[in-house]
Design goal:
Strands 3, 5, 7, 9, 10, 11, 13, 14, 16, 17, 19, 20, 22 and 23 form a 14-stranded mixed β-sheet that branches. Strands 4-6-8-12-15-18-21 form a seven-stranded parallel β-sheet, with no helix packed on it. A two-stranded antiparallel sheet has the order 1-2. The protein is mainly beta. Helices cover about 0% and strands about 50% of the residues. It has no helices and 23 strands. Strand 9 and strand 10 form a beta hairpin. It starts with a strand and ends in an 11-residue tail after the last strand.
Length: about 200
């Protein structure tokens, strides 16, 4: 690819990048996108420690995004200032990868992969139409139940949906979100499995 405007010598795509293949699209090598990435299909960011996906701009997901690898989203002012970018989800975001961005959820976030941990290196904000879906098979985070780990602040709203077969014991503590930052908001009471 040719160099992107404003970033001399940097390969990548500029402008708007859309992924909309109904059967799905897999990213299995390094990919850099400059501008807006709009996913309306089924996109897999594969688990591979040798590559990462890098977006300078924003990523809008209204399809299904499975983030099992490394995804970084930054902003760029055209000169020399980079900042933390945003992934805005109105579809389904799932996986066991690491997302270096702020995440705004107005769709479904389903951490893990039967179960597992989805890491967000940034803030997590869930709006009133958002759902955090957590699978619970035991009381061990990451291997027994899904967990969303955010390095920044967490703002809760919308719905917490619990699925799974685990019957909690007295004294069990299950944290669907983990963060060293501030937590604001709450989930309203929602129907959970009969064992809860």
């Amino acid at each position: 690819p040719s160099p992107s405007p404003g970033l001399p010598g940097t390969p990548g795509a500029s402008g708007s990048f859309s992924a909309s293949a109904a059967g799905g699209t897999s990213v299995t090598e390094d990919l850099t996108v400059y501008g807006r990435w709009n996913n309306t299909g089924n996109l897999l960011l594969a688990d591979n420690v040798d590559f990462s996906t890098y977006v300078v701009g924003e990523l809008l997901n209204s399809g299904t995004l499975t983030a099992n690898g490394f995804l970084t989203i930054d902003t760029y002012d055209g000169f020399d200032e980079y900042g933390v970018g945003t992934l805005t989800n109105s579809g389904t975001l799932k996986g066991t990868g690491s997302i270096h961005a702020n995440v705004v959820n107005n769709g479904v976030v389903a951490p893990g992969s039967s179960p597992g941990v989805l890491a967000i290196q940034g803030n997590y904000q869930q709006g009133p139409s958002g759902t955090l879906q957590v699978e619970i098979d035991s009381n061990v985070p990451g291997t027994g139940y899904d967990q969303l780990n955010a390095s920044g602040d967490v703002a809760l709203g919308g719905t917490l949906q619990v699925i799974g077969s685990h019957t909690p014991q007295e004294g069990d503590a299950l944290n669907a979100t983990a963060t060293p930052g501030r937590v604001s908001g709450a989930f309203p009471p929602t129907p959970n499995p009969a064992s809860y």
